[in-house]
Amino acid sequence: MRDAMPYLRGEVSGKIVAITLDDGYRDNVEQALPILKDLGFSATCYVVSGRVGTQNTWDDEAATVHQPLMDWGQVSEWITEGMEIGAHTRTHARLKLCGRPQIDEEIRGSKEDLEAALGVAITQFAYPYGSWDERVAQATAIAGFEAAVTTDRGRAPVGSSLFALPRLNMKGGRAWRNLLSTCVKWP
């Protein structure tokens, strides 16, 4: 996302794809990182700061198997290898359903946690479950983030709201077809 920001702000023109990964799963560093490095790509991984080194317990109702999350050493490795870390709240909360104090605590708190642990500026945010509204977007901007991504499907043309950026979901068997069909339609 850091590399996409000049394009999104209209400071640079051209085509760019930003690779983002949600939740901070351990397989991001174990499997995706070597592939990204081999291809010369970078990516932003959005980490749930209060769950680093544990599992995706926020999926208890839907998941039959819990997936391990990166520990702090692996999060640091991600950064050392040229990748970016973004915030994804402290607990993977459905922000649209929260009151303003909890929204602020989840968003601002995740940024503070990550910056304190990693010693780098955290400028990017992803809304868990894609749960956001104008209150949540405003709190994200006030917390000092440069941009936030949603789960809304689409491309982000120049002039898009930096706190409501759409993405393409690459999960499942149709992932590459979705990406290629979108890229082919680029002007």
- State the CATH topology: TIM Barrel
Annotated CATH architecture: Alpha-Beta Barrel
Shape: globular
CATH class type: Alpha Beta
**Average pLDDT metric:** 90
Q: What is the CATH homology-level superfamily?
A: Glycoside hydrolase/deacetylase
Secondary-structure class? alpha/beta
- Low-confidence region ranges: none
The count of domains is: 1
Strand order of the largest sheet: 1-2-3
Q: Give a count of the beta strands, DSSP E runs of length 2 or more.
A: 6
Distance between the termini: 21 Å
Q: Radius of gyration, Cα only, in angstroms?
A: 16 Å
Helix content: 25-40%
Number of alpha- plus pi-helical segments: 6
What proportion strand? 5-15%
Largest sheet: 3 strands, parallel
* N to C succession of SSEs: HEHEHEHEHEEH
Describe the structure.
By secondary structure, the chain is α/β, with parallel strands linked by helices. The protein has a single domain, classed as TIM Barrel. It is built from six helices and six strands, in the order H-E-H-E-H-E-H-E-H-E-E-H. It is globular and about 40 Å long. It starts with a helix and ends with a helix. 30% of the residues are buried.
Question: What is the element layout, followed by pairings?
Answer:
Elements: H1 5-8, E1 20-23, H2 26-39, E2 44-47, H3 72-80, E3 84-87, H4 100-118, E4 124-126, H5 134-142, E5 147-153, E6 165-167, H6 175-184
Helix pairs in contact: 4-5
